[in-house]
Every structure is written in structure tokens, then in C-alpha cells.
């Protein structure tokens, strides 16, 4: 990469940290890279700085930030050439060492010898920095400007555009504007399909597009993209993202009423999360399996599992997910006509949003409102049902979740029919048709 990187000093520091951690080269390499590469690094026979995935993996296993590796190695990044500094910025962003990443971005921006292609990549890094700072509008503004600048240079910068639209899609997704996310991920996928060989970027884009299709209830597309992503992650031996793909495939198959495959994929994801010791996602997979699969034939078992999960969520103070879990327990009680028990859990969910949660998850809140509306419908409190369901539909509509919005409006229609207001029921049915028409997949052209 550069003669300004003292690989001898860097390798010696890795060896020092590895021995302090009581690890062999084989143990350090496991799940990150080959044992031979670790040996080469430590013995100054590896010619370049390893890529970001390897550096982050090594430092993560040693419990050290990448920036500390370079600082303790006595390496001054002001002496590095632009390419090496760009690589370091990617590593720092990957490891969420944001202060160091921003400092390095400013260092490189201040140089007068930065080539055009390096400026474009640096702008991508700045966009990713704002994503990791949860500053979505800044990311969208920066990357939209770069996309406009590159419009006449598509052939020369195809890979960079794939990366750019993937980051833009992520900014829109995290802003809960799922249709905008879908459009940008679709563009990223079109550019990434021109790659000669599938790689991690293509795999991630495919996964992101599949996940967004899942949110928008484009079931067949979601299944297609997530299956492709699953295959890519198997080939890349990326077990974490493979587990994520299997998890989402389980949800998609459940949404398609394919309970057998839903259960199979969710169990596979659960087993992978357990092997990776990612216990937060182990519990998430258990909750989803209970609500989406187990409840179909064994609703009482599903309720008990969700109650157990609710206790864990309460202990961890994840109150948004706790409220959603209470609502799901209430949904299962409502399906069994156990209205009184449903009301107890509806009240607990609503109380969390009213008194405890400071930063509400809007999608979860909308689902709690919909469950509250169904509860009031069973009590024949039609006006309360209609008010709650309309609030749910309004929130979901702002997030482009039109199929979920239509389901909330279906509750409104049922309430109007039950109270004998045929005119309002027909009016709501027309509104539902309008909403569902919006769910037709938009065409996206580069």
C-alpha cells in the first residue's frame, strides 16, 4: 500500500497484544482470516496493510480499537499517502471509531493532492460517517449531491455508484421512508450486478433490497433477493449475515402463509445466532418464531414464550420492543376471544408509550394502536376503535407501509359495518383500494 506504513512495528504490536490475550495465531485468525496471514503480519513478511474487514476482525478479537493499534505503533497518519488514509477511514467507520474517522476525513480533505476518484470516495466516507452518527438528512444531502455529479460518469464509476446508492438507501431506510429506500437499493443492485464476481458489497446490497421489500410486503421479490443474499453469504462464509438472511426469510415465508419454511428458516437462524453467541438475536428469533409460527398451531405455548421474553425485555429496559411484545400477546388473546386478558396486555403496552418510552419506535407504536383498536372492536366500542385505527393508519402511511396501513383501515371498515354505518364502511373500502393501488412496485431506472 505505502512505504510510509511501518509493517514491522504494526506486526510487533499485534504479536504483543495477542500474547497478552493468551491467544495463539490460530485462535486469533479463526473467523477473521488465515493463520498464515497472521504469521506474515507478525513477522513483517506481509507486504501491505490488510483490508478493513481483516483489521477490524483482528482488533475486535483483541479487544482494541484500530486507532489504538496505529497510535501505539508510533505511526503518523499525516505521512501516509491518500489511498492508505482512505483505507484507514473505512476501517475506523467499520469499527465505529467516529471521532478518529472524522479527524482523518478532515485531514484528507485538507490536502491539495487528492485525485478526483479519491474525492468521490472520501465523500462516500463522509456520508457513511453521518449515517453512523444517525444524521440521516446530512447523509441524504451529501450523497444526493454526489449522485448528481456522477450522472455523466456512470461507466467509469459503476462500483462507486453501487456503494453510493446502497448508503443512500440505508439513510432513507433508517429515516423510515421505505419507498425511497427501495428505489435507491434497486439502483445499487443494478450497478452491482455489473460486477464480474459476487463480493461482500453485492451481498449486502442484495440483502438490503430484500429486507426493504419485506417491509413493503413485496413478498415474492423479498424472497428472491434474500435467497440470493443467503447464497452469497454462504459462499463468503459470512455467518452473521447468513443468520440475518435466514431470519428475514422466515418472516417473509410466514407473511406468505408458508409456515413450514418459515419455521425452518427461523430455526436455522436461531441455531446460527447461538453458535455465534449473539444472545440478543437469539432471543429476537425466539420471539418471532413464537408469534409468527408457534402461534399457528399452539397459541397458548406461543403466549407463554412471549411472556418469558417480555420479562427479559423488561430487565434489559428495551421498552419499545417490550410494548410490541405485549401487543403481540394481546393479539393472540384476541384471536382466542380472551378479551379480558387481551385488555390487560393492551393496557400495559399503551402505558409504556404514555409514561416510560422517551423515543418511541413509530412502527411499533402504530402496531400497538392497531391492537388497541381490535380490542375495542371486540368490546363494541366502535368510536374508540375507529379513532385508534385511523391513528395507526396515519403513522404507517407516513412510513410508506401501505399494506400495514390498509390492514389498520380494514379495522376501521369493520367497526363502521358493526355499528351499521354502511356509507362510511364503503368510503373506507374505497380508501383501502386507493392505498393498495400504491403498493404496486415502482419501476426504477438508473
Automatic annotation (TrEMBL):
Residues 14-69 form the HTH cro/C1-type domain. TPR repeats lie at residues 243-276. Keywords: TPR repeat. The keyword Transferase does not apply. The keyword Iron does not apply. Gene3D superfamilies: Tetratricopeptide repeat domain. InterPro entries: Cro/C1-type_HTH, Lambda_DNA-bd_dom_sf, TPR-like_helical_dom_sf, TPR_rpt. CDD domains: HTH_XRE. This is Helix-turn-helix transcriptional regulator. It comes from Tumebacillus amylolyticus. The lineage of its organism: Bacteria, Bacillati, Bacillota, Bacilli, Bacillales.
